[in-house]
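Anyone able to model this chain together with flavin-adenine dinucleotide?
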Amino acid sequence: MGTDADLVIVGGGPAGLTLALGLLRRDPAWARRLLLVEKAHYPREKLCAGGLGERGWSILGRLGVVPEVPAALVGGISVCSALGHHIARPGLCGRVVRRVELDAALADAARLAGLRIIEGCAVKEVDEVAEGCTLQTSIGEVKAGVVIGADGVGSVVRRSMGLDGGGLRAQVLEVDTPRVAADLPADLIHFDASDRSYAGYIWDFPTPIDGELRMCRGIYVLNVKGGEADGVPSGDGHKLVELLGAYLAARGLHIADCRHKRFGERGYAPAGPVATARRMLVGEAAGIDPITGEGIAQAIEYGARAARLLHEAGVEAAPAAWQARLRGSRLGWDLWVRSRAVPWFYGRSRPRLEAAFAAAPRMLLAGARHWGALPQRWGQVGLGLAEGGLGYLRGPRPMLQGSEAAPAAR
Ligand SMILES: Cc1cc2nc3c(=O)[nH]c(=O)nc-3n(C[C@H](O)[C@H](O)[C@H](O)COP(=O)(O)OP(=O)(O)OC[C@H]3O[C@@H](n4cnc5c(N)ncnc54)[C@H](O)[C@@H]3O)c2cc1C
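re: yes, here you go
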């Protein structure tokens, strides 16, 4: 197998594989010009809770890819804040998958479409030269016209562009456990953001493991560079094991009995560059939603959008246009809003924001619909914004009982 190509994609996660699929679906002739290098061997683990809204899943469907992987189907979202517990049930809006299975299925689909993948090839360095890029890898030198950095949170391609890790980094600790009596119905994913001492939350997601429905639980703690000025608690030194351990203990589970899986995440930085003359970043290498750490759907959308640009503009011209194309897109706008909202969400306004959500449970329903790519009911959104605005202005009230919102009930 030759190792030089017009376009070399570094990293075979959802971003890199969707990008390849997006090109190959547009024109199978791309197969001759493309190469994907992946440092691991499929099926490979990717530490991730696997929650994927239909917004991301449907992009794969539009590319003609329907990965046949076990999934726990999600019919609603449950959120606990310091001011109450709310459940929104819009109907089927997402699924929880295992990344070891999803990514292998995407790689199979891409191979079937003609993609050359070299597994076990770790990129160590990428140098931009006049006529393209030179990649130093664990299997030797690779030459590329343009390099796509789809290599996730620890992106070597990003580092080779002289960029740092970004100002929004999260620490994440995850465990798999059995389901317990205190768990919510198995069609709900649950977020517990009731502890204001850190910027983040604990999650409980039903997850299919070896034919059995278990729970993936974990804690997401965001570190915001300079966030203290806005009242965002510093995540540094936070004791993820203790916090998650206490949460599990309240459910009769012992963290010492679980295999701890730790990883980082990178939030999107609106001001940061995502391309140079011969390199483009997609997926978590560029940055994902810092508020929730959601990144699979974003990675898929990054890949699909980059594929479209590469096909339309051509390999040589695409990097120069990528920054503007991303910023002008729905994805860029969504990431911009979420990044800018971090100090508001996790800073001094947090109690007021919780009051807004407590006063307007239909906003959670709108959020679940957005995640699930379900049609919005704009009248309800308007009403929710008005209710939420009033709740925000009034500020926190004593703990509310909670609510359950479902289309049938409205
Ligand atoms: C604990 C945890 C839970 C999460 N839960 C969720 C969730 O429930 N829902 C959600 O939407 N998001 C979740 N995320 C975020 C999500 O996992 C990522 O944002 C998403 O995987 C990003 O996709 P990607 O394709 O950009 O990168 P990745 O999925 O990280 O893929 C990058 C690929 O590049 C390869 N690679 C890396 N370096 C090199 C190199 N030097 N050379 C060659 N190959 C390389 C890797 O092996 C990997 O295959 C979670 C993250 C964590 C850590």
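The chain has eleven helices and 18 strands.
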